[in-house]
Amino acid sequence: MITVHTEFHSHFREIAATARDSFELEEPLVAELAERISARYGEKMRAMLIDPETRELNERGTMFVDTSGRRISMEDTLEDGETITFLVGIAGG
Amino acid sequence: MESRLLRVNLSTGELTGEVIPHSVFERWIGGSGINNWILWEHFLTHDINCDPRGPDNIFIFGVGPLAGSGAGSGVKGRITFKSPCYNMFGDSAGGGKFPYMVRFSGYEYIAITGRAPRPVYLHICNGEVELRDAAHLWGRDTAETHALLQQELGDYPSKAHTLTISQAGEKQVGIAGVVSDALRIHARGGGGAVLGSKNLKAIAVQGNGGIRIQRPENMLAWSDDFRQRIDGNEAVYGFKRRGTLGAVEMYQHIGSHFWRNNQGNMFRGDEIRSDNWVKKYHKYSEVCSSDCFIACDGKYKIDGSESEAAKKYAGETFRRPEYLTTGSAAGALDVRDWAEVAHWGKLTNDYGIDNQDLSCSIAFLMELRERDLISDRDVAELFGHEQTLRWGNMDDIEACVDAIVFQKNPFGELFRDGPYYGALKYSEMKGQNFMKYATYGKGGASFTEEMRPFPTWMNNMAVASRGADHLKGIGLIEKFQRKDLSKIYFDGRTEAADLSTPELKGACTALVENQVALLNSYGVCLFHWMLDPAGYTPQDYYGQAYAAATGIDYTPEELMLAGERICNLEKAFNSRVGMRREHDTVCERWMWEPNPEGMYEGKVAADMFDTVLDEYYEWRGWDRESGLQTRERLQRLGMDDVADVLAADGALI
Ligand code: SF4
Predict the structure, then answer these.
(1) Which CATH code is given to the segment(s) B3-206?
(2) Relative to the CA of B75, which ligand 1 atom is closest?
C-alpha cells in the first residue's frame, strides 16, 4: 500500500472542488490512481482522465506530470509519497 | 469552386471585381494560401524591396472556404502584406464575425494597393463597392471608429461589420494591427501601419448574400459529427470556461511564463498565478463568430470592488483576456492585479497594437533601467520629461504605450517597429550594445512565453515566416509531451514528445507548419484542432469538410503537399527579400542565458538549436548551408514557376 498525493489545477480543480487530495493505492500504478480519482470524483473527472476508446490516459487538452515535469502514462509506477499534478494542456491566444 | 476578389487601387480609385478560378483553389486551397498567391503575384510586377509603408505594398484580406460554412469549426480571416516592422513576409489571423460577413457582402478576398490622397474607408454592401470619406474617423481608436461606422451605416441589409485601424495605424507604427469589430485584433506584423500608409481607415461590410456550399448534405453530416465530438468532450468544456487562460496554472507549474522580460518564468503575486480570475470577473461565455461549436470567448466586467486597482476601472467591460494578453502584462511587465491585466487587453485592442511587441519593447527599457544600464536622465531624454519605469506600474506602462501609439517622443519613435529594431537603434544611439536584453526571434518580438526548455518551440521562433511565432509551427507535441501524436506523425517514434533530445524537433516544426498552413487556408480556428476532438490531422477529417464546401476532392497526401506548398511560398517571399540561414535565429538571452528557474531550470537554446535547425532544413528539403530552397523540392511541389523567379533573384540552390 502506498500513498500518492494529487494537485488539481484549472478544470480539474473545478471538478474535484479541491486543489489537493491523497490516495491510498494497493498497486503503485498510475492506472490504479486514475481509477481511484475517477471513482471519487465521478464521470466528469473520468472523462478528463481516461480516453474511452483506448483506455489510456486522455492526452487531449490535458497534462499529468510527475515532480520532474514528465508526463505520466497508465503503465508507469508510482513511489510512496509522490505528487502527481493535473493540468490542462492548452497554449496560444 | 470559384471565389470573388475585389481589387482596390487607392491611388486611382479604381475598384475591380475578379473571379478567382477553380485552378487557383486546386493549387492554394483558399484563405491564407490564396492570400499568399495574390501577394506573390503582386510582387512579380512590383519591387519586392519596396518600402512596406509605400504605395507599392499590398494589403490582402482573405477568408477560407470553411469560414461561415456552418461547419462549426470556427472562423478566421487573414490579412497578408509585406511587413513594415520586420521587412519580410507578414500575415495575421483574426476571428469574429467580420470574416464571414465579407463573404455575405459579396467577396472572399480584397486586395488593396496604392495610396488614397486623403483618409477614406471602403464600404462593401451586397457586391456594391464604394470609397468614402473618412475625415470624421481619423484620429479615433478602433472602438470609436467601429461604433461610428455602425451608427452611420445602419442595420440594412445587415449590421455593418468592420476592420479598423487606430491612431497607431494612422501614424504608421510598425507594430500596429487591424481590429475586427472592435474586438479581435489581427495583431502581428504591422497590417495597421500598411493600411495607415494607404490612408485607409477601415473596411466596412454589409450583406445578406449567404455562402454557396458545393455539397450541402455532406457538410451537414460532417458538421453534425463534429458537434457530437465536441459536445462529448470534457476537456473542451473546460476550455469553454477559461479559454487560453487555462494555460496560466500549467505554465506556472512548469515554469513557462515570461516574467520581467524573461528574466524569470513564473508569475509573482498570489492572485495572478491562478485562473480563479474566471470566478471573479467573468460574466459570460460566447462564440466569437457564430460558426463555432466551442465558444471559448467571454466577457468580463470590473465592478470596482475586486481590488484596490480595480476601482480605477470600475464599469469597464470587454473580452476576457487571452493567455498572451495575460502573459504580456502579468509576465513581461509584472502586472499583478487581474483588473489591470484585463484593462491592458482592452487598451491594446482599442489602440489596435500588438501586445507582444509592445510589452517586450517596454520590458526591455524597464530592464535597462532596473540594471542601471541607463539613468533617469537617459529615460528623460527618451520621454522628453522625467519618467519612472516601475515594473507592474500601470501609469508608467500607459505612458510607454502612449509614447508608441501616438509617436510622442524618441522612445515611441525608436520602438515603433518592436523590440528588436528598437534595441538596435537605441544601442546605436547610446554607443552601447544592449541587444542582450532584447527578446526576439528572426527579428520578430518574442511571444511572451518561456522558450528555452522547448526545442521545437524555439525552432518555431527561429524559422517562422513572419518572425518569432508559435502559431505557425505550434510545438504542442513537445510542450505537452504528446507521445500519442508523435507516434501518429512519425511512424511509431516518440522522440518528438521527448524534451531531452533534439531528435524529430525540426521535423515536427516542418510537419506542423504544413498542417497549420492547411487549417489557415480552410479559414478555421486553430483551437478546434488543438483540442483535438477530431484526431489532430487536418488533412484527413477536415479534408472531408473542405471537399463538402468546395467540391474539390483531395487525398490527405495531396492536402499535405498543398500545406507544404503554401509554406514554401512564404519562404520564397523571404528569400527574395534577402533572408538566409543567418536570419533563422533567436536572441542572445534564449541562446546563451540559462533558464533561471522552474522545472526546466538551466536550459539554454544553444544546447540543441543548430541540430534542430539542420533537421528542419533537411525535412523541408532546403539547403542547410544557406537556408535556401532547392529546385528539386520546389519541382516536386509543382512550383517550377516559383523556382524560376527565385533563380532569377539568385535565391535558389
Ligand atoms: S474556439 Fe474560441 S476563438 Fe475559436 S472560433 Fe470559437 S469562440 Fe472564437
Answers:
(1) 3.60.9.10
(2) 5
